[in-house]
Prior knowledge:
Order of helices and strands: HHEHEEHEEE
Protein name: 26S proteasome non-ATPase regulatory subunit 9
Helix content: 40-55%
Structural class: alpha+beta
Subunit structure: Interacts with PSMC3. Part of a transient complex (modulator) containing PSMD9, PSMC6 and PSMC3 formed during the assembly of the 26S proteasome.
Radius of gyration: 39 Å
Number of helices: 4
Low-confidence stretches: 1-6
Distance between the termini: 66 Å
Largest sheet: 6 strands, antiparallel
Strand content: 15-25%
Organism: Eubucco bourcierii (red-headed barbet)
GO biological process, one term: proteasome regulatory particle assembly
Number of strands: 6
Number of domains: 2
Shape: rod-shaped
Oligomer: single chain
Pfam families: Nas2_N (PF18265), PDZ_6 (PF17820)
Amino acid sequence: xxxxxxxxxxxxxxxxQLVKRKDEIEAxxxxxxxxxxxxxxxxxxxxxxxxxxxPRSDIDLYQVRTARHNIICLQNDHKALMKxxxxxxHQLHAREKEKHAKDEAEALAEAMSQNQxxxxxxxxxxxxxxxxxxxxxxxxxxxxxxxxxxxxxxNFQNLQNIATVVQHSEGRPLSVTVIxxxxxxxxxxxxxxxxxxxxxxxxxxxxxx
Length: 209
């Protein structure tokens, strides 16, 4: 049985083993007390000799002595084991608390770095027609566009910039980067003729900053 110690993290299964062993010892102690009870109710301290100093003949002295000895040993084991269980549970609880704090700190750090590293969007998708090139590429309503081919926040002036890029890229995949749900998403969008109007099948509006 592996003993929990300060140098190595205790596992839940080890704690379960300790608790199981504790239950076993308690059952053994109970059995020993029941044996003493069956011997004329002799407990741990009643004399084993009669009034004249002779060993009592009405009880099994060997069984009584053995049971008393076992109870003392088992109670010592039980005490030590309870200390181990307590230490192990304390260690598990402390580790769980530490892990929770670490997870929270990591989530906070990730959220902060996401906010800091998100590039600025210049336009937003407000409609996407099902079955259109835009829809097939994975573009979604409310996606905020940060890069559309060669167009980005630094050179975007109006929607004509996007229209020009689309016309010059018919049949060729364009690299499009959007912000969706607070995260950057990269898409490959190929402008082409389809059953609907235009080469994309979506509507894009400038973002007012």
